[in-house]
Design goal:
Helices cover 49% and strands 12% of the residues. With 713 residues, it is α/β, with parallel strands linked by helices. The protein has a six-stranded parallel beta sheet, with helices on both faces. A six-stranded parallel beta sheet has the order 14-13-12-15-16-17, with helices on both faces.
Length: 713
């Protein structure tokens, strides 16, 4: 028996439906109906139609607010699918059906999606084609083939004709023939669709809807880049700046969401900037800020810069941000507001009031807080902005910060910052803000009065949007953790090169290293250690390759991994790297060549069993794990971090000569050379420990912070 499943989004003509059901029954078919329209008022009439099954599908989109927003912004056919796709009855019966039929244009996309999970069913639009298909199946009897979408694929000429004719009609009707998965998988079909969405004379909003249908179909067929190309091609034919920016945004996000660096990223950013410039020229500061915020988010997306082993920003920093600062809206944001009065000098008749603040990340503040908390010349307070909802909300309000900078006058946001932050500024002589991210941008929207503002920038911030929305003319001192980070950031942010730039300092992270110098057992000589494997930038696969080269000659070498694992939830790019890493690691862990020690609060104890400390990263600011390992007496082997290699300042200038290598082969050679005998290994480790303790230990670094805050040793 042939099973026919009818899907309707709008109430069908019931008399026509009843007549067709009788004809289906005469042909020996069983007929079921699923609808998103309200079935209750017509239940009696549907019963009279003698259907073999009726199902009320959800009449609205259920799920998260993000899903509902997506539905609201989608074409109507896609909204119907978002309503219906979670219904178990529908999915179960669709898998068993021989013929899937959309009764109206709004249901076409849903039928097409259901057909992707039942490749043997025929997917059709309308009762007449469905009756013909059932009749053909009856005539063939048992010889009737299970015709999938591929079998019924029309010729390229027919597809081209239908695409050209239908692209100016309802998008759901277009999906009837030309967005089937086989079409999208074929180069011909994909090329035809790209031509269709760029056809002349198509209204802009219809072109946008059609191109999004096409992108959805291509992505379903596994052509993520094809989906991005189709959207970008449609965008090139749209004159409306907002619609064009939206399409290009959608285009690049298709690839970013799949862990790819989009080729059209510069065009997408440029489109958002053009839209922002247009809104700014019309004094629509909210619209301009929204578009600029999106441009910054795209330009500095973590998948492009942080979750990869390379970054266009690191390769050509100045050229990368040049288009950004060519826009009128970004130049307006970058105008320094300055401060009305210079900061007051440190008091002489009382302790310095020092406010140390951060937002949820105090990892590098422990020693600073401990020391200055007990300092007789300092009255210390600590503020975690993330601990108070109101402060957290204003600290990361990227769009509102930009709108404030563009509006020029006092804004509601500025008044809110004044109300919440001014009491802290009035108390403090000096504010030390760790991490140059959202809170730094927030803090510089208001004049600090005579309070001195000191901000520390690590390394991560250089690859984010935040330095570009911060008014550095209201920061007195900017502290970097390494010279190569300072070089990169100053090449990216014009304000840091102008007359209003803050004073800059390079001060190492505060580390108590003396406690790491503990005796190591002789067997530690063959134990390599990697502290921190939770980010793609750590590139632990490089360390695995070093181990492989060593074990080719001596299987006593092992690799110990200290720290928590990467999270696949971070991004698709991180998940892809993690999968490669786990695949490479599995046989090594099984054989005992790699030992995963996991996260620990006692790194010093873990390092006693490590004879060689590796830095396999592609980028670092101040690699704390490496410095702690060196202090412990382990042999340091540092990859010449590719993000900074060959620059005036890099790993080669941060660490002593000989520590830094370029390739895994060079790393293996250095390890063999210095671990060949126990005497040579202990001698190299002692030299490394002596350097670490004299250059980076807290007593040395503490004196630099004393000078920074108090102007004393």
């Amino acid at each position: 028996m042939t099973v026919v499943l009818l899907v309707a989004a709008t109430r069908p003509q019931l008399a026509v439906l009843a007549d067709s059901v009788r004809k289906f029954h005469d042909l020996g078919a069983q007929v079921q109906l699923a609808g998103t329209f309200h079935l209750a008022p017509v239940t009696g009439e549907l019963t009279e139609a003698d259907l073999d099954g009726v199902r009320q599908l959800p009449r609205s989109v259920r799920g998260s607010s993000a899903l509902r927003r997506k539905a609201a912004e989608s074409p109507v056919g896609m909204r119907v699918w978002l309503q219906a796709k979670g219904d178990d009855w529908l999915r179960s019966h669709a898998r068993k059906a021989d013929v899937l039929v959309a009764l109206d244009a709004k249901a076409v996309y849903t039928v097409w999606r259901l057909a992707q999970h039942n490749r043997g069913a025929e997917a059709l639009f309308g009762l007449a084609p469905a009756l013909r298909a059932v009749e053909a199946r009856r005539d063939l009897g048992d010889a009737a083939p299970r015709r999938g979408m591929r079998d019924s694929l029309p010729s390229a000429a027919v597809v081209a004709r239908d695409v050209r004719r239908s692209v100016t009609g309802l998008p759901a009707v277009v999906m009837r023939t030309a967005t089937a998965r086989p079409v999208m998988r074929s180069a011909v079909g994909a090329r035809l669709w790209r031509g269709a969405v760029t056809a002349p004379g198509v209204p802009a909003r219809l072109r946008v809807s059609a191109s999004r249908y096409v992108a959805e179909g291509m992505e379903s067929a596994g052509r993520t880049s094809g989906a991005a190309i189709a959207l970008a091609a449609a965008a090139s034919k749209v004159g409306d700046l907002g619609l064009r920016a939206s399409l290009l945004d959608d285009s690049v996000m298709r690839e970013i969401s799949n862990g790819l660096v989009p080729g059209k990223l510069p065009q997408a950013v440029a489109a958002q900037l053009a839209h922002a410039d247009d809104r700014f020229a019309r004094s629509d500061f909210q619209g301009a800020a929204t578009a600029l915020s999106r441009a910054l988010n795209l330009n500095f997306h973590r998948v492009v810069h942080i979750d990869q082993l390379s970054s266009p920003l690191a390769r050509k920093a100045g050229a990368y941000v040049e288009p950004l600062y060519a826009s009128k809206v970004m130049r307006a944001v970058g105008v320094p507001r300055g401060r009305r009065t210079p900061h007051a000098p440190a008091p002489t008749g009382r302790p310095l009031r020092l406010l140390v603040t951060t937002s949820g990340n105090a990892n590098f503040l422990q020693h600073i807080l401990s020391h200055f908390g007990d300092h007789p010349g300092v009255e210390l307070r600590f503020l975690d902005l993330a601990a108070q909802k109101a402060l957290m909300r204003i600290s990361w309000a990227g769009r509102r910060i930009l709108e404030d900078r563009l509006a020029g006058d006092t804004t509601d946001y500025q008044e809110e910052v004044e109300r919440l932050i001014r009491p802290y500024l009035d108390w403090a002589d000096t504010v030390f803000l760790d991490w140059a991210v959202g809170p730094a941008s927030m803090l510089t929207t208001i004049d600090p009065g005579d309070t001195r503002i000191v901000v520390r920038l690590h390394s991560y911030e250089a690859f984010t949007r935040w330095p570009h929305s911060t008014d550095f003319s209201r920061i007195d001192d900017l502290v970097f953790v390494a010279p190569h980070v300072r070089d990169l950031v100053t090449s990216l942010v014009p304000q840091l090169r102008g007359e209003h730039a803050p004073r800059t300092h390079v001060i190492d992270n505060a580390m108590e290293l003396a406690g790491f110098a503990r005796p190591k057992p002789a067997e530690a000589r063959f134990e390599l250690g990697l502290v921190g494997v939770g980010q793609v930038a750590k590139d632990p696969l490089w360390a695995v390759e070093v181990l492989r080269l060593l074990r080719k000659e001596d299987e006593r070498y092992r690799l110990l991994l200290v720290g928590g694992d990467m999270s696949a939830k971070t991004s698709h790019a991180t998940r892809d790297y993690l999968q490669r890493f786990e695949k490479a690691l599995a046989p090594l862990v099984k054989s005992g060549a790699v030992v995963r020690l996991g996260a620990t609060d006692d790194v010093a104890s873990a390092l006693t069993g490590i004879g060689t400390i590796l830095s396999s990263s592609v980028r670092e600011g101040c690699h704390v794990g490496l410095m702690e390992g060196a202090a412990s007496g382990a042999l340091p082997v540092v990859r010449d971090w590719p993000f900074y290699a060959g620059r005036p300042h890099s790993a080669r200038t941060l660490y002593p000569e000989g520590w830094v290598v370029e390739t895994p082969a060079e790393a293996a050679d250095r390890i063999r050379r210095h671990t060949g005998t126990e005497e040579a290994w202990r001698k190299a480790g002692a030299a490394a420990s002596a350097h670490a303790l004299t250059a980076w230990d807290w007593p040395v670094v503490r004196a630099r912070f004393e000078r920074l805050f108090l102007g004393t040793e």
